[in-house]
């Protein structure tokens, strides 16, 4: 999913070439595909089940490799995808997502997704560094280790760290000094290994999805974010790395199923970003008219709900007494904002933060609330709270009038009510931003809203009611359909990589 600043311009292009925000030109040939897969896939290896998510120190990547990769500060090249993925061997399409990831390749003209775990073609983009076993768990086992209360460090939503200084800072994990380039590289290396085990093929080249914009076209972090992602793939062992805008990949996958001559809009709402592509189908493939994106996704929905409904129970919005006199001052907000932000949670468990909260508790007008905040830091419960918010969000979105965010892990019987109207109120600003993003995309494509004949929703967060509500209000005459919500981007990448 693309991660853009609100209101930032993504791309504009005249047909038949669509340019990504970073300048990668992808011509009509790329919409039809990239390199040819050589060799038929073998039957899935019986050892695939052994790839079932318990990975012994999957982040072990040589420091030399990572150092070399991390200095690759190249902006996107102007090579066409057809040229760039013209490798001698098969090309793996990979969608590294904020919340979930998937991979696939082309077999006899059809995309085939890699089984990431028995019966599953998606892998949660989560990590658990087990302090007792010294292992790194990925995906669902990582989630389960957190829920089991195992001793270790949990991480999620690392895609949102791309382009920031945090990517190259070393941190101590399992008695090793590692960077996020190594951590993400280890995750991508495991995806590569599982694909090779299942297919019997060797994938030295990858066509990766990328947001239309990571941070914003004029943001200095934009080029660095793609360079960071490239470094992660190189650390994972890929010799050739190319990128395609994620909604463009979804358009390729969906366009094959649409009527020729139809104008459509891809609405791709993922965990970290929202991307849009206006496309037109033709007899020879899909023509991308414009790509655009805004930096809003499911984790932002979670953050707003947490700030509005959970953080007040931990002291947000309360007052501190001044040391002298009877006056009060507002509680500092930063620690609450960070605790509500998935990718910032792992960095909160520091002695200095605990001391700061203890100091605030002594002066708090509501010390019982600060006691809960201190318990979160001492017991490292930030991700448990985030998952509780996510579960409450899903229940409220389904229309449950009695939906609640269960905070019993902090205090027996503690919860935050989340009826559908409260959900809608908290997410309303995000709906307004999505509306702006789509209208900007239509302007880039030179199309009016009433010219869109079909709106196609992909990405897990497109299932949130606020998304189709905004789109239907803007384009009431279009057909609105959900299609392969969790895998459309991967399907398109596999098609583009394999032709």
Automatic annotation (TrEMBL):
<dbReference type="InterPro" id="IPR043129">
    <property type="entry name" value="ATPase_NBD"/>
</dbReference>
<dbReference type="Pfam" id="PF00012">
    <property type="entry name" value="HSP70"/>
</dbReference>
<protein>
    <submittedName>
        <fullName>Molecular chaperone, DnaK</fullName>
    </submittedName>
</protein>
<dbReference type="GO" id="GO:0005524">
    <property type="term" value="F:ATP binding"/>
</dbReference>
<keyword id="KW-0067">ATP-binding</keyword>
<keyword id="KW-0547">Nucleotide-binding</keyword>
<dbReference type="InterPro" id="IPR018181">
    <property type="entry name" value="Heat_shock_70_CS"/>
</dbReference>
<comment type="similarity">
    <text>Belongs to the heat shock protein 70 family.</text>
</comment>
<dbReference type="GO" id="GO:0140662">
    <property type="term" value="F:ATP-dependent protein folding chaperone"/>
</dbReference>
<dbReference type="InterPro" id="IPR013126">
    <property type="entry name" value="Hsp_70_fam"/>
</dbReference>
């Amino acid at each position: 999913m693309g991660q853009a600043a609100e209101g930032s311009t993504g791309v504009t292009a005249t047909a038949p070439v669509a340019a990504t925000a970073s300048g990668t030109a992808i011509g009509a040939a790329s919409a039809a595909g990239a390199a040819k897969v050589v060799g038929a896939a073998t039957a899935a290896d019986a050892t695939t089940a052994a790839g079932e998510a318990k990975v012994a120190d999957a982040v072990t990547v040589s420091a030399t490799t990572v150092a070399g990769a991390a200095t690759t500060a190249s902006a996107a090249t102007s090579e066409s995808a057809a040229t760039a993925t013209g490798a001698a061997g098969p090309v793996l399409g990979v969608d590294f997502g904020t919340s979930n990831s998937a991979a696939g390749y082309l077999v006899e003209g059809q995309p085939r997704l890699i089984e990431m775990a028995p019966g599953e073609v998606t892998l949660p983009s989560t990590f658990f560094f087990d302090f007792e076993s010294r292992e790194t768990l990925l995906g669902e086992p990582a989630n389960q280790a957190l829920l089991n209360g195992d001793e270790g460090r949990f991480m999620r939503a690392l895609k949102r760290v791309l382009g920031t200084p945090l990517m190259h800072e070393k941190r101590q994990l399992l008695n090793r000094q590692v960077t996020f380039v190594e951590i993400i590289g280890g995750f991508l290396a495991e995806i590569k290994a599982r694909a090779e085990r299942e297919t019997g093929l060797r994938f030295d080249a990858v066509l990766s999805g990328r947001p239309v914009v990571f941070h914003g076209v004029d943001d200095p972090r934009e080029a660095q974010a793609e360079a960071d992602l490239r470094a992660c793939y190189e650390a994972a062992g890929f010799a050739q790395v190319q990128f395609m805008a994620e909604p463009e990949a979804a358009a390729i996958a969906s366009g094959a199923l649409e009527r020729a001559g139809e104008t459509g809009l891809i609405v791709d709402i993922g965990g970290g970003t929202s991307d849009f592509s206006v496309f037109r189908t033709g007899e020879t493939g899909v023509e991308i008219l414009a790509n655009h994106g805004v930096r809003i996704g499911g984790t932002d929905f979670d953050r707003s709900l947490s700030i509005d409904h959970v953080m007040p129970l931990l002291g947000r919005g309360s007052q501190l007494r001044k040391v002298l006199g009877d006056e009060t001052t507002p509680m500092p907000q930063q620690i609450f904002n960070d605790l509500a932000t998935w990718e910032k949670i792992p960095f909160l468990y520091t002695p200095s933060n605990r001391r700061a909260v203890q100091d605030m508790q002594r002066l708090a007008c509501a010390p019982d609330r600060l006691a809960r905040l201190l318990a979160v830091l001492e017991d490292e419960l930030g991700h448990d709270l985030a998952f509780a918010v996510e579960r409450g969000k899903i229940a409220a979105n389904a229309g449950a009038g009695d939906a609640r965010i269960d905070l019993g892990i902090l205090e027996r019987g503690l919860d935050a009510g989340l009826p559908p109207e409260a959900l809608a109120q908290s997410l309303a600003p995000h709906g307004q931003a999505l509306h702006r993003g789509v209208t900007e995309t239509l302007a880039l494509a030179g199309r009016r809203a009433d010219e869109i004949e079909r709106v196609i929703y992909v990405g897990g967060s497109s299932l949130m009611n606020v998304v189709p509500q905004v789109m239907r209000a803007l384009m009431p005459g279009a057909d609105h359909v959900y299609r392969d919500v969790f895998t459309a981007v991967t399907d398109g990448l596999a098609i583009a990589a394999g032709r």
